[in-house]
Amino acid sequence: MSPIDMLTELDALVIIVPHLPYLEKPMNDLMAMLKKDGIFIDVKSAFDLKKMPELIRYWSL
C-alpha cells in the first residue's frame, strides 16, 4: 500500500471502508489526488455530497 500523500493522478479514488485518515482529510486534498476527469467512488456514502466539487464525478451506494 502507498502512503496516502503519495497518491496522485488517479483515474478513480475508491473509498470502500471510510477509515479515519480519509475522513479527516480536507475534501480539496482528496480531490487533488484525482486526474481532471477522475471519479470519486464512496461505497459507504461516508462523504457529504454537498461538499463535492461540481466537476468531480461522484458515485456512491
List the helices and strands and how they pair.
Blueprint: E1 10-15, H1 20-24, H2 27-31, E2 34-42, E3 57-60
Parallel strand pairs: 1-2, 2-3
Q: Briefly, what is this?
A:
This protein is of the alpha/beta class and 61 residues long. It contains two helices and three strands.
Written overview of the protein:
There is one protein chain. The protein is an alpha/beta fold. It has one domain. Helices cover 16% and strands 31% of the residues. It is built from 2 helices and 3 strands, in the order E-H-H-E-E. Strands 1-2-3 form a 3-stranded parallel sheet, with no helix packed on it. It is globular and about 25 Å long.
State the domain count: 1
Number of helices: 2
Percent of residues in β-strands: 25-35%
Gross morphology: globular
What is the gyration radius calculated from CA atoms? 11 Å
Mean model confidence by pLDDT = 87
> Unreliable stretches, pLDDT < 50, 5 or more residues?
none
Helix/strand order, N-terminal first? EHHEE
**Largest sheet composition:** 3 strands, parallel
User: How many individual β-strands?
Assistant: 3
Strand order of the largest sheet: 1-2-3
Which structural traits does this protein have?
single chain; alpha/beta; 3-stranded parallel beta sheet; 2 helices; 3 strands
